[in-house]
Amino acid sequence: MHNRDDTGENHMQTVEGRIVLVTGAAMGMGRLYAERAIAERASAVVLWDIDGRQLAETQAELGGTAANVHAYVVDVASLADITTAATRVRAEVGHPDIVINNAGVVRSKYFWEHDHVRDIAFVMNINTLALMHIAREFLPDMIANGRPARLLNVASASGMLSVPMMSVYTSSKWAVIGWSDSVRLELERAGHSHVKVTTLIPSYIGTGMFAGARAPLLTPILDPARVVDRAWDAMKRGRARIMMPWPVALSGALRGLLPQPAWDWLAGRVFKVYSSMDAFTGRAPR
Question: Which residues are identified as catalytic?
Answer without folding.
Answer: 169
